[in-house]
Amino acid sequence: MANNFMNSINGFMNDVKGFIKNDPYDSDIRQIESELAGLKAQEREIFTEIGRLAVEKYGRDQFGEHSDNLQITQDNITAAEAKLQAAIAAKAEAERAAAEAAQTPVCPSCGYRNAPNAAFCTECGAGLAAPAKIFCVECGTEANPGARFCGKCGSKL
User: Fold this and answer.
1) Dihedral of the CA atoms 22, 24, 27, 32 (nearest 10)?
2) CB 128 within 8 A of CB 107
3) Cα distances (Å, whole numbers) of residue 34 to 21, 39, 45, 47, 107
4) Could you report the per-residue pLDDT of 98-112, keeping only the tens digit for each?
5) How many CA within 13 A on the CB side of residue 129?
6) What does the alpha-carbon distance between residue 99 and residue 94 come to, in Å, rounded to a whole number?
7) What is the biggest distance separating any 2 CA atoms in the chain, rounded to whole angstroms?
8) Is the Cβ–Cβ distance between 157 and 148 less than 8 Å?
9) What is the C-alpha to C-alpha distance for residues 69 and 154, in angstroms, rounded to an integer?
10) Exposed/middle/buried for 55, CB within 10 Å: 0-12, 13-18, 19+?
């Protein structure tokens, strides 16, 4: 049975080798294409710098429609950066709200969210159980409510 398995593997490897050609021309072509792509990228960087220097020296007005396109692109960059900052701020606020919500006790009777230190529900008066304390099994540090990883050693809780 082991021989059949090895024969199957060897047959598969021979089939794969048939698809992979060891052609020195292909290797040379890939290497030259890679070199060419790097040189073209370098050329774009140089043209970019020349353009930047030309705009600084002669001003944007000398470049007509290209100047207008540059201004539109720069305005779009500014708008995209503002959207990015707003998205980052929204994420931070959502994470802050989630952390705050994780620390507010929910009434087991009516589902009302109470103040963090409430012992009784302010909506229905039912007793609120204190959240069980969680400790890291690796280092023994008390974890924050809702945490999935230890803040001291990084172990999963």
Assistant:
1) -170
2) yes
3) 19, 9, 17, 20, 64
4) 888 778 888 888 889
5) 5
6) 9
7) 83
8) yes
9) 49
10) middle
Q: What pLDDT score was predicted for residue 22? A: 67
1 pLDDT above the threshold of 60: no
CA dist 127 → 7, 87, 106, 111 (Å): 71, 39, 11, 12
Q: Can you tell me which residue has the tokens 């073209």?
A: 40
User: If you average pLDDT over residues 82-101, what whole number do you get?
Assistant: 91
H or E element, residue 75: helix 64-103
Three-class secondary structure assignment of 126-147? CECCCCCCEECCCCCCEECCCC
pTM score, whole prediction: 0.45
With contact defined as beta carbons under 8 Å apart, do 120 and 127 qualify? yes
If one counts every other C-beta atom within 10 angstroms of the C-beta of residue 103, the result is 13
Count CB atoms within 10 A of the CB of residue 125.
10
